[in-house]
Amino acid sequence: MEPKDIQQLQEEVKRESTPLQLIRTEMGRIISGQEKLIDRLLLALISDGHVLLEGVPGLAKTLAVKTLAQTLDGSFSRVQFTPDLLPADLIGTRIYNAASSSFETKIGPICANVILADEINRAPAKVQSALLEAMQEKQLTIGGERFPLPQPFLVMATQNPIEQEGTYPLPEAQLDRFMFKVKVDYPEREQERSVMERMAHPAPPQGAFAVAKLDDILAARALVDKIYIDEKIIEYILDLVIATRPERRHELSSRQSNCDLSRLDGLISFGASPRASIALTLAAKGQALLNGRAYVLPQDVKDLAADVLRHRLVLSYEAEAEDVDADSVISTILAELRTP
User: Could you confirm whether domain 228-336 is CATH 1.10.8.80?
Assistant: First the structure.
């Protein structure tokens, strides 16, 4: 891309990213101390992805996704996943109408712009399968008939890391459909003080105002595709993903001199799929747009790598025995690979 073209794109980015900044500001007015969560939700929304959140109860996960829907003036649904949940409870079913002597289709709560799938790992496999179709195909199938979902469509699913009794671990194929897995931690002391002052009232505070339109998100998605990403950064993303694959790691020796990943030997059973490369590229472009840039920086990739990769790595029993988690593996790869 020529410098002149980048300059023109930069002007377009500054102009078209204004609604995203308004959403970010309005969500920050309601939610304190969760800036990373807000950014990841926005990134998933403009990159046509989904978010899996892991965190203890009470960290504003539900409030965040509900507030996002309010700022867009879009529809919002919350589904509490339980072991007795049925696919029909999620996507809908066919109901017999005695007055007309015919069956009618009743669409379920998943037909909304923003979905909160609370404690997703408590639902059985058939429900997971129904959700997977909605996430991947952007459609529902009820009685052999297909129904397209509204656009934009975002699923934010939560997992409770504390209690695992009566849960169904998500299969790797479904985990791979989430663009991000974000770990939500406790806020800092001053941030929690701000939350107390804002929320510790008998009457709930007023919700967020609609500061953007759904069409603004669709326009942002089109603009994400135009964001410039240099060939060297594309190669860097490929290096990161290939470094997670034990059987392919030797390919890096000709590209990354002085790169020693031998400490990861035996720790990874299965690395990230090509879907990780796609997600990391899209997320980096979205991060550039969110920050008002027409081009991707290597730091964008490094900032997003853990959230994109951590749920796509299958670690070995040896890693578990040595108390090595996915985040430490990703940190090692980032430290060893040469940044363009």
Answer: yes
